[in-house]
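Incident log entry.

Two folding requests arrived from the same account within the same minute. Monitoring flagged them as a possible duplicate submission, but the sequences differ. Recording both here for audit purposes.

Request one:
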Amino acid sequence: MISCFPLSRLITILIKQIRSSGFGFAQKNSMKGIIGKKIGMTSVFDSNGKQLACTIIEAGPCVVTQKKTVASDGYEALQIAFGDRKEKNTPRALQNHFAKANTDPKAVVKEIRNSSIDKQVGETITCDIFAEGEKVNVVGITKGKGFQGVVKRHGFAGVGESSHGQHDRSRAPGSIGGSSYPSRVFKGMRMAGRMGGDRVKIKALKVIKIFPDKNYLLVAGSVPGHNGSIVLVENNK
């Protein structure tokens, strides 16, 4: 009796071989990035005397904890870690994982796909991978606002009129649908609910200044999150 090899498994193997050879697929942009912590905002003056609002980010140092390859993992990525973590609060599996990189337990671990950074496991990445004047993308989690109404959450104007029999309707959502038809509320209806806590990427922020001794990046504009929150700084592809 001839055993039938699963077609889905065969297709997966063929795709991996084609991707590894680079035939038939567009080459992906090489990436570089670093994990950081938002310190706060300030302002500086440029050469023309214009005041620029800036954000200070403590970028790194990050330790390379794993290198993923197409042969072993199906894709290429560089796993980096940032921040200290108490050993007693670290699971044994993670302790052994960090021990392979000869580093102490770390708080945050992220992957950089198709990384252009030539680093080996156990080596350190610092903020000097970027240059002044370079454009970067910053990814962070926005501030949590809790349960908010439609005026704050969606920018509703309310009823507006204070006369004609209106009673405290200035911040009310109004009608949310028909009665006999469609006899339901459509999906996506803008209503009150939880606001904030979303993953947001701000693109093309200019690196104003780099302070290698303090691992500080000074980027123009604001980045998502509260002071002390974790952010990911990557090149603008």
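Request two (distinct sequence, not a duplicate):
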Amino acid sequence: MTAAAISSGAAISPTISSGEYERPAVDGAALAGPVPAGAALGLASVDRGAGLAALMPWFLLYGVGGGLLVPLTATILGQLPADREGVASGVLNVSREVFGLFGVTVLGAILSTRRSGELRAGADQLSAFLSAYQFTLVVVAAIVAVGVPVSLFALRTRRATRPAATDRTANTDAVPEPVG
């Protein structure tokens, strides 16, 4: 049921995101980060005794946020010449895998450390795990809250600068390079 909620959210979101994968899609994808972060905060707020119905809206929201990131891949690949798309796709997938592994490792260490601290403080196993898990979800949301403005800054469009005036007397024998 959990997989169905996340999958349906991921299936729905590309239909509501931009059909044209150009610059607005990049900005939309960068802004899609708060959606899964909001889902993480929502999951962190679910209490120990809550049922499946309390979790499903957050899983659906998480799936929608993940699906909104799909246009980013198409945008990245669409910016390159056709003969470079294979390399770009490989680099993009490897970076996702490496940083995904890095994120799981760091967040796993945070969760484990927090859980150990809770157990030392006298909490039972389940309460210690849930407390550590909720804390880790808040850390994830904080990382996304920092990452979104950084992404928007890094993805901003740059205005073309005027080329500097050239000295026409220097090197008049040079052959100009073809454009295009």
